[in-house]
């Protein structure tokens, strides 16, 4: 396949206090999120001057990608500037015909896959019939370029624990409604949790095969009567402390960078929970723009450009696919 541009697609985040509420409204539009939850999360952004770290992280990733890619690089977000529709319009004006899109989430599910596909489709429709074709790069939950930086980070965090006695690895990812998890993957195969479990197993095997580990969930939203994936990381820390664990490494394997859900929900909230319980706590880093992660993106581009080469880096067995079928990761509201 011939591509004439690379497109980074991300979540977006506010970059000042006056941008927090309009951003939050974009995120939650039509998603049934209670007003109190919205205000609570807005407060988290306010602690950082209303500036989410995510846009700077996207800019750093783009700079790291420039020497690796032979294609012009564009960037568009779901929820904040630069908005995807503006970027796709610019691509059209620049004469781009067919672009390859990399999404800043490695996993399936409506929130982490299909919603991005819908965003791309809507942006193209906004631009009109001469909008470029845009193909999304596959999931990369078990790519060596995703596993290795996480594993090194877990290793470094373990080294920072006071003794490594009675220590436990806690992997965490964004919680989603259980119905959304069930609808993840072709035919609704619960792929979100399955992929995350595989990522966790691979990172644990590479970083600390001798240690027990768990996969837990964070940043739950939505109305209380809707079931989301559990246990929550804070509840899990309580259970571990009760069971005699004294030291934990928390590894956010669900995320590629230290965005707000990492620097607030883990570095402030979960850390406070651990302190209250007397647990030694280290949070492992995310890939960010680690050179191996950047190389991974180049390899994923090559994989699609040289479709005949048949090289498909993967350490696990949960399959990945290039084009999501129509029944893949559908919104549970519409399912
Ligand atoms: C699976 C998943 C990922 C990982 C995949 C991916 O990376 O895409 C993710 C990432 C992110 N989520 C983010 C921020 C928010 N997510 C929210 C709300 C929600 N997230 C959900 C799921 C996910 N979210 C869901 C099911 C909701 C409920 C609303 C709905 O059904 O859609 C809300 C509203 C308040 C609240 O309800 O918490 C905010 C502000 C940011 C930016 C952080 C920054 O600014 O640094 C990032 C990277
Ligand atoms: Fe999908």
Automatic annotation (TrEMBL):
GO function terms (MF aspect): lyase activity
Name assigned to this protein: Coproporphyrin III ferrochelatase
A Pfam family hit: Ferrochelatase
Predominant subcellular localization, coarse grouping: cytoplasm
Database matches in NCBIfam families: hemH, PRK00035.2-1
Highest rank taxon of the organism: Bacteria
Function of the protein: Involved in coproporphyrin-dependent heme b biosynthesis. Catalyzes the insertion of ferrous iron into coproporphyrin III to form Fe-coproporphyrin III.
PROSITE patterns found in the cross-reference section: FERROCHELATASE
Species of the source: Dactylosporangium fulvum
Lineage of the species this protein comes from: Bacteria, Bacillati, Actinomycetota, Actinomycetes, Micromonosporales
Top-tier EC class: lyase
Binding-site positions, Fe(2+): 174, 261
């Amino acid at each position: 396949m011939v591509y004439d541009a690379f497109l980074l697609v991300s979540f977006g985040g506010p970059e000042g206090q006056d941008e927090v509420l309009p951003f939050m409204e974009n995120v939650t539009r039509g998603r049934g999120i209670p007003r109190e939850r919205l205000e609570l999360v807005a407060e988290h952004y306010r602690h950082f001057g209303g500036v989410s770290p995510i846009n700077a992280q996207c800019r750093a990733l783009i700079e790291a990608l420039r020497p690796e890619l032979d294609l012009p690089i564009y960037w568009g977000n779901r929820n904040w500037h630069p908005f995807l529709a503006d970027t796709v319009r610019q691509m059209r004006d620049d004469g781009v015909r067919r672009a390859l899109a990399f999404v800043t989430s490695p996993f399936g599910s409506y929130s982490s896959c299909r919603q991005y596909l819908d965003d791309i489709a809507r942006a193209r429709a906004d631009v009109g019939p001469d909008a470029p074709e845009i193909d999304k790069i596959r999931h990369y939950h078990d790519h060596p370029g995703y596993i290795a930086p996480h594993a090194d980070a877990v290793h470094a965090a373990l080294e920072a624990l006071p003794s490594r006695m009675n220590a436990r690895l806690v992997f965490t990812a964004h919680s989603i409604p259980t119905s959304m998890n069930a609808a993840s993957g072709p035919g609704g195969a619960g792929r979100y949790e399955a992929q995350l479990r595989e990522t966790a197993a691979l990172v644990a095997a590479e970083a600390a095969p001798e240690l027990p580990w768990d996969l837990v969930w964070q940043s739950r939203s939505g109305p209380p009567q809707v079931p989301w994936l559990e246990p929550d990381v804070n509840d899990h820390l309580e259970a571990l402390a009760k069971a005699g664990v004294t030291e934990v490494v928390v590894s956010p394997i669900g995320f590629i960078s230290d965005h707000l859900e990492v620097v607030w929900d883990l570095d402030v909230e979960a850390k406070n929970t651990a302190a209250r319980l007397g647990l030694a706590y280290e949070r492992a880093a995310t890939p960010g723009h680690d050179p191996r992660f950047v190389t991974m993106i180049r390899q994923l581009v090559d994989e699609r450009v040289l479709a005949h080469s048949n090289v498909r880096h993967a350490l696990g067995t949960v399959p990945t696919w290039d084009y999501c079928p129509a029944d893949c990761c559908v919104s549970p509201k519409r399912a």
